[in-house]
């Protein structure tokens, strides 16, 4: 089933509308009359030679997937030209999904590069983010071609044109109406407490603001003039302005703001330097001997980055516009890897309307104090590193300097304690002393229920009492020992286990309380994995394939679960990965809990008859079926327990798709099974004769039927990327023909169902899966 776009243009409108009218094309392109004549002549040619194609391209069923597929397969220049112009009609996010395919065609197919050049340059002239994505992908894919031919081509010239900002994106200021509830402006940088009390103080400040207005105007202009003469320090982490391009066009001057950036400040360099700094840290870590020292070095380098924040930089796979204000540097952790040192960072951001126009929040110092009300923290108990509640009432007072605090330190909630946290006051106004709010304490009292019976009652007030019998208390205590989430202690050999096991909402609350920016209502926390030394283009290809599969299964109502991780390719050996939250690997579960997977499920989700446990098992089965299909179609290898995650809802999630299609780890070819399914997985489903195991096989069958039905949406993703590619996954034979065979178009539904039964049985009894797990256990210490 094809996806339909809303409000499609009539064919006549397509034929008579120029590309220049649809987009702001750069100077030097043909004028609108020339474009109209070219477009009309293209349509007339198609109407005479290929009327069926013209009807298809002009219909609502012609999705981006179809246009990209025909752009690749067609050899007629007129068809390619028509499709190159049609790209302007699609929403940007739909075209951006196929940007790797467009870049690969631009590099390796000259006839296609000529027709999509106009689209790429027009988008680069309108968007900084699109320019960066194109530059990174061009850099990654050009490297393969340059090894074969030293002669520069159009792709190399396009890369340098983008990097040297020949197509400089236009940045304009668009005022947001105050009634727009979705806008994020300076008011969102004001602390929550100040905003609540702002109404009371507004009348008092109004008169002083009027008298100070002229002085503030002159101060703003002085600051602007000063910044214009500040030396450009892009990339210098010791300067404090490593990610600042010195643009002051949108800063207030004489009470007004420019409507368009007119300076010559570099647009792309701040973000490029920011991500380059993260990659440079990743390149240094493998040289550090132990994981403990790696973590120490990582924290010290992340602190250097904080010196240059806030800045107009962002995480590209975070969809909402934002500014990065700070790294929670004490949370940065090196992940498990034998040969390399990927690491995860937690990044504090503030949402904004426009990255380049919205004002940056004032820089906050970690050593300053901010007053907050005790109610802000009253619901957040003290949590130790292993997740246990801790009573700090008798502990000595520690320093209020945030840099000296432990990562897991939280605020103390007491009946009459005023809560203080590290931050800097926004306006420099002195905060009033907080009011002491008495909170009713909860007491356990003994009261006589009968003459020979005593019960423990929980008293919240004098009017409400609830009886709790001693037998109930003993029962609850015994159940608490057998069930409930298991906490992981910090392990020097695997520091990431405790970090990843902590629930995201608790981590976010804890970091927000200790952050000098946490009082801003538009504050958010995001995470990113930085990886160096690996080619993430394999991961990007798998991500695209899974996204399309997920879309197909949703449209076909197949109840399976897949969670692709967003990938940002920066070069042919580095990039960023969006981490899976609230999930730990099977290796970490076995190492830290010393339990089988089924026993771990019982501890995490309750007894076998509880609703939470049954939901977790259902989630496990649905996700296991989805990833069995993914691993079979893409022939994903290296499926040891370190590359399989389990989240807090019971879903199995596969990561690390560096070995797939024709590539295997060290070319050993250990894993010959279609996918990984072990006896422990079957035990969670309650055995071979259980309904859940039968449900698992049914889901694989239904998922393959749906994928086979929409194979035309999946094949171009891989087929286009194989053309001219030097990736390892395409190194052996015709990969796309093998992928097409795995859809089994020649089988009936009954034959495919029987084939799935045999495939699951052979994978479950696969000797090579057990051999590979044993190999990883003895060579890398990964639990079997």
UniProtKB/TrEMBL annotation:
Molecular function terms from GO: 1-phosphatidylinositol 4-kinase activity
Documented EC number(s): 2.7.1.67
GO cellular component terms attached to this protein's record: mitochondrial outer membrane; rough endoplasmic reticulum membrane
Root EC class: transferase
Catalytic activity entry: a 1,2-diacyl-sn-glycero-3-phospho-(1D-myo-inositol) + ATP = a 1,2-diacyl-sn-glycero-3-phospho-(1D-myo-inositol 4-phosphate) + ADP + H(+)
Domain of life: Eukaryota
One GO biological process term: phosphatidylinositol phosphate biosynthetic process
Disordered, as annotated region: 1-41, 193-218, 484-512
PROSITE patterns in UniProt: PI3_4_KINASE_2, PI3_4_KINASE_3, PIK_HELICAL
Keyword Phosphoprotein part of the UniProt annotation: no
Record domain PI3K/PI4K catalytic: where: 505-768
Protein topology in the membrane: Peripheral membrane protein
Entry-linked InterPro entries: Kinase-like_dom_sf, PI3/4_kinase, PI3/4_kinase_cat_dom, PI3/4_kinase_cat_sf, PI3/4_kinase_CS, PI3K_accessory_dom, PI4-kinase_beta/PIK1_cat, PI4KB-PIK1_PIK
PIK helical domain residues: 1-162
Residue spans of biased composition, Basic and acidic residues class: 20-32, 502-511
Swiss-Prot/TrEMBL keywords: Kinase, Transferase
Record field: transmembrane: none
Protein name per Swiss-Prot or TrEMBL: Phosphatidylinositol 4-kinase beta
Origin species: Adineta ricciae (Rotifer)
């Amino acid at each position: 089933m094809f996806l339909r776009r809303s409000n499609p243009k009539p064919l006549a409108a397509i034929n008579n509308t120029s590309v220049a009218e649809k987009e702001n094309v750069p100077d030097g392109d043909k004028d609108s009359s020339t474009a109209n004549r070219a477009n009309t002549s293209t349509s007339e040619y198609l109407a005479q030679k290929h009327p069926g194609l013209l009807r298809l391209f002009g219909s609502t069923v012609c999705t981006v997937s179809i246009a990209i597929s025909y752009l690749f397969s067609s050899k007629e220049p007129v068809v390619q030209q028509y499709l190159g112009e049609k790209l302007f009609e699609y929403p940007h996010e739909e075209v951006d999904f196929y940007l790797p395919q467009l870049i690969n065609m631009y590099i390796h197919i000259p006839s296609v590069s000529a027709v999509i050049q106009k689209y790429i340059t027009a988008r680069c002239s309108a968007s900084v983010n699109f320019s960066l994505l194109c530059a990174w992908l061009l850099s990654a894919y050009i490297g393969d071609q340059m090894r074969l031919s030293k002669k520069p081509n159009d792709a190399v010239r396009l890369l340098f044109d983008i990097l040297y900002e020949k197509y400089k994106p236009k940045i304009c200021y668009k005022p947001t109406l105050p009634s727009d509830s979705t806008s994020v402006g300076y008011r969102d940088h004001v602390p929550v407490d100040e905003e609540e009390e702002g109404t009371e103080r507004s009348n008092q400040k109004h008169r002083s603001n009027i008298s100070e207005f002229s002085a503030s105007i002159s101060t703003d202009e002085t600051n602007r003039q000063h910044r214009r003469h500040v030396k450009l320090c892009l990339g210098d982490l010791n300067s404090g302005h490593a990610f600042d391009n010195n643009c002051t066009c949108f800063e207030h001057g004489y009470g007004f703001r420019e409507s368009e950036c007119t300076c010559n400040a570099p647009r792309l360099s701040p973000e490029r330097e920011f991500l380059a700094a993260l990659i440079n840290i990743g390149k240094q870590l493998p040289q550090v001997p132990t994981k403990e020292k790696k973590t120490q070095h990582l924290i010290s380098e992340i602190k250097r980055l904080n010196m240059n924040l806030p800045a107009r930089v962002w995480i590209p796979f975070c969809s909402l516009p934002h500014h990065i204000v700070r790294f929670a540097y004490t949370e940065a952790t090196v992940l498990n890897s034998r040969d390399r040192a990927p690491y995860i960072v937690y990044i504090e951001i503030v949402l904004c309307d426009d990255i380049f126009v919205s004002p940056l929040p004032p820089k906050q110092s970690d050593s300053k104090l901010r007053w907050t009300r005790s109610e802000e923290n009253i619901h957040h108990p003290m949590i130790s590193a292993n997740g246990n509640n801790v009573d700090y009432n008798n502990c000595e007072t520690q320093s209020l300097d945030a840099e000296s605090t432990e990562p897991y330190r939280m605020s103390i909630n007491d009946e009459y304690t005023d809560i203080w946290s590290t931050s800097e006051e926004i306006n420099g106004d002195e905060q009033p002393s907080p009011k002491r709010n008495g909170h009713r304490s909860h007491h356990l009292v003994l009261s006589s229920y009968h003459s020979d019976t005593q019960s423990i009652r929980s008293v919240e007030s004098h009017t409400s009492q609830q009886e709790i019998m001693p037998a109930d208390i003993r029962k609850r205590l015994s159940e608490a020992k057998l069930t409930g989430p298991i906490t992981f202690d910090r392990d020097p050999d695997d520091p990431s286990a405790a970090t990843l096991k902590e629930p995201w909402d608790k981590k976010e609350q804890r970091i927000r309380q200790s952050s000098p920016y946490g009082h801003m209502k538009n504050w958010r926390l995001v995470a990113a994995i930085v990886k160096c030394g690996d080619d993430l283009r394999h991961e990007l290809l798998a991500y695209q394939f899974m996204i399309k599969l997920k879309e197909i299964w949703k449209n076909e109502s197949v109840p399976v679960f897949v969670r692709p991780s967003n990938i940002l390719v920066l070069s042919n050996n580095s990039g960023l990965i969006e981490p899976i939250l609230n999930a730990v690997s099977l290796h970490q579960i076995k190492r830290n809990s010393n339990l089988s997977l089924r026993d771990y499920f019982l501890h995490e989700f309750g007894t076998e008859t509880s609703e939470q446990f049954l939901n977790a098992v259902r989630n496990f089965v649905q996700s296991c079926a989805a990833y069995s299909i993914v691993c079979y179609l893409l022939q994903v290898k290296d499926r040891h327990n370190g590359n399989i995650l389990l989240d807090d809802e019971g879903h199995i999630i596969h990561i690390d798709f560096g070995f797939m299609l024709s590539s295997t780890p060290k070319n050993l070819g250990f894993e010959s099974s279609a996918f990984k399914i072990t006896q422990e997985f079957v035990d969670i489903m309650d055995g071979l004769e259980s309904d859940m195991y039968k449900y698992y096989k049914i889901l694989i069958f239904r998922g393959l039927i749906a994928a086979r039905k929409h194979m035309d949406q999946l094949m171009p993703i891989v087929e286009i990327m194989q053309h001219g590619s030097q990736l390892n996954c395409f190194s052996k034979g015709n990969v796309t023909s093998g992928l097409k065979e795995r859809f089994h178009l020649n089988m009936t539904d009954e034959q495919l169902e029987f084939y799935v039964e045999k495939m699951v049985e052979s994978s479950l009894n696969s000797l090579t899966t057990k051999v590979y797990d044993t190999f990883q256990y003895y060579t890398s210490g990964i639990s079997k």
